Amino acid sequence: DRVATPPDPPTVMPAFFISSADIRGTTLTLTGDLCHHLRASLRVKPGEILRVTDEQRQRYQVRVSAVAPQALSAEILDSKPGPVDAAPVVLLAQALLKGDHMDWVVQKASELGVRRILPLISRHGVVRPQPDRVAAQVTRWQRIATEAAQQSEQWQPPVVSDPMESRHFFSGHHATRALLFAERQNTVGLAQVALPTLSSETLALIVGPEGGWAEEELGQALEGDCLAVSLGEHILRADTAAVTALSIVQSRLGRLG
Ligand code: SAM
Questions:
Q1: Which of 7, 83, 169, 202 has the most beta carbons within 10 angstroms of its beta carbon?
Q2: pLDDT in tens, 151-168
Q3: Which residue lies with its CA nearest to atom 2 of ligand 1?
Q4: Does the CB atom of residue 238 touch ligand 1 within 6 A?
Q5: What is the pTM assigned to this prediction?
Q6: Using CA atoms, how far apart are residues 221 and 188, in angstroms rounded to an integer?
């Protein structure tokens, strides 16, 4: 007897990021990677309804009218502006992590609404970027970030920067407030730290590698006006620390919970 396979659960299509330049009148025309992804991977057909978001946080509902190898066109049915985001911009400076842990942090941080991800090269980090592979690595993280942001219906994709030395970040960040997460230090807890309040301000969260920060880096961070902050008495893995810090901050800023 054949066992009946259960039907696939309904999948909700991500809200894809587009450029407002793709819109002419009431017609959206997509080319390049997104066209290829919709046609070849998601097998989108004429008549299907999609949601797309442009860089001005305008979200459109469109009906696909034609799908060809080089271009997909759709008619705009409806358009709504995204809500005004009154909270500060949050960025994550994350020391490079081993294996797929960095990919995981990039994905989760993007779901949690981070606007920029800066991979840091740190003293105790075991991963050093190979010059000939950096560009491909950043492109890959950017793709992971964009997909995660689309899936979680963010209003804009985060930007992933090229890896930089931690000391350069500490001395050159322009964040309104930069919080350096450091365990085993006599530091203030994240819940007690005053956060910036204006949308024109930036909050940087800085998380170390598996091996933690070197003493020298802690000194450079303090000199660079970063505040050492604790997540509590337990030592979290770096990827857990990043996601925990972001969840607490986004909740305090009203974006989560
Ligand atoms: N090897 C270090 C040790 O044993 O002390 C632990 C480093 S921890 C696995 C990796 C990173 O996560 C740290 O550099 C820090 O940024 C963050 N982290 C983990 N637990 C934390 C905590 N309780 N408070 C603040 N930051 C924490």
A1: 169
A2: 999 999 999 999 999 999
A3: 212
A4: yes
A5: 0.93
A6: 15
